[in-house]
Amino acid sequence: MIKSRTAMALKPPPPQDIVIMGASGDLSQRKLIPAIYNLAAVSLLPVEGQIVGFARTDLGEQGFRDLARRSIQEYSRTGFDETVWAGLVPRIKYVKNDDHSYGSLKRVLRENERLVYLAIPPSALPDTITGLHDAELSQGTRIVVEKPFGHDLASARELNHAIHKVFHESQVFRIDHYLGKETVQNILVFRFGNSVFERVWNRDAVDHVQLTVAESVGIESRGTYFEDAGILRDIVQNHVLQMLSLLTMEPPSNVAPEAIRDEKIKVIRAMRPLNPARTVRGQYTAGTIDGQPVQGYREEKDVSPESMTETFFAAQMEVDSWRWAGVPFFVRTGKRLPRRATEIVVQFREPPLCFFEGTDVTHLPSDHLVMRIQPDEGIQFAFLAKKPGPEISVQPVMMEFDYSSSFMTSPPEAYERLLHDVMVGDHTLFMREDAAERAWVVVEPALNNQAPTCMYPAGSWGPREADQLIAPRKWHLH
Ligand code: BG6
Q: Which residue, among 241, 216, 32, has the nearest Cα to 148 in the 3D structure?
């Protein structure tokens, strides 16, 4: 990771075309086009090559350029600069996806290499892969496949099979944008760059770990997708398991992509498949977020009024390794929770009380480490200090690392980093086929289990069953 970061700071990737399939969709507008623009703004886009939108919508070249401009103006983290835009415009092309479109696509391309971003529904993947193959575009192509990778283990295997009929694994980049977040990558640097913490990073010192991915937004305009996916497929199978694997894996021998991915798959294999009895599924009802009334999930567009799809999921997980056996990992994620917050809490064991015998101290709140992945990116270590005064009494105090004040900048958008990595052929932050499949093995017992869906009002921290799951401990955010 460190190696590729250095490389990224140095030079733009070699000349290549960029093709976005599903170019008129949400992901393309919010993330991909602004990321391409921001790479251009810092001279990290290939200096030559077309940027081709490919979609079913009848946009035309000008229509796509207008859409791209609006997307950048609305979503680019660095704003909009006319000079950067002017350099990009002549390279922006559009091909409408109809019956003979792969031939037209081929004619628009200029370079021998290309990144093809498949921002399309999983059901459209097999035909697209065949289309690329039939147009003799498989050579020189790196494909980016979005999560969730398949719908379950069987479909993930089928998808890998379909992909491998046309592409070698070295051409495949299974993306999970959480891995592109600076703070997620920092998990490894924090662990392996500071010997003091790595020594206590195990079952001897850790009481339990919490991982929360909370969002205040609902499903936005993605009712059809979400009804089919649920939060288990949307967040747990990928973002949660990936973060957990970085937190629990053994030190890789070096920063080479395969060294890191080898250690990741080992720990994902050590994760016990979910025990449905230790899971909680929830769905939001109407409530209030930031003082504004919001509707319930079943009232959202394209959602069945009887839907049982989960918008909240919590589980106790176990990692059956020498390092972690017996340590509970409590994970939780939900839509329409009170605020956006992704954080990991490592709670250390309580010390013995003997030293405090005869004092008023009868309980020691144990020290813990909080990794704030987003927002307010940073790390906090809470420990006990003596309160000033003649008697012995204690109070938790904080040591704080704040990303923005230490580095005087906000972290870059994950997609910028990841697109750049694809263009230079660095697989470190992408899921290998074995990891993508194994992650389904971990979540499948919960997918197959028809456990009741517990309702929670929008704006709360989820169903109370999630508090019972972690009891007698408590969620750090509540
Ligand atoms: C996506 C999910 O992968 O991640 C969305 O499909 C979710 O449902 C999003 O909202 C959250 O990403 P971030 O980067 O805003 O935490």
A: 241
DSSP 97: -
Residue 9 pLDDT: 53
CB of 146 closer than 6 A to ligand 1?
no
SS3 29: helix
Structure tokens, 219: 């499903």
Helix residue spans in 233-365 (DSSP H): 241-248, 257-270
Place of tokens 């924090």: 190
Please state, in angstroms and rounded to a whole number, the distance separating the CA atoms of residues 409 and 122: 36
223-260 residue pLDDT tens: 999 999 999 999 999 999 999 999 999 999 998 999 99
Tokens 């013995």 sit on residue: 352
pTM of the model: 0.94
Q: Can you tell me the distance from the alpha carbon of 311 to that of 297, in angstroms, rounded to the nearest whole number?
A: 8
Mutate to test the pocket of ligand 1, among 30, 215, 217 (most ligand atoms within 8 A of CB): 215
Give dist(CA 405, CA 437) in Å, integer. 40
Choosing from 239, 368, 420, 427, the catalytic residue is 239
CATH classification for the domain delimited by 3-146, as one of 2.40.110.10, 3.40.50.620, 3.40.50.720, 3.40.50.170: 3.40.50.720
The answer for residues whose C-beta is within 8 angstroms of residue 471's C-beta and 6 or more apart is none
DSSP secondary structure, 328-358, as one string = -EEEEEESS-SS-EEEEEEEEPPPPSGGGTT
Residue type, 431: M
Q: Does domain 179-470 have CATH number 3.40.50.300?
A: no
Cβ atoms of 432 and 261 closer than 8 Å? yes
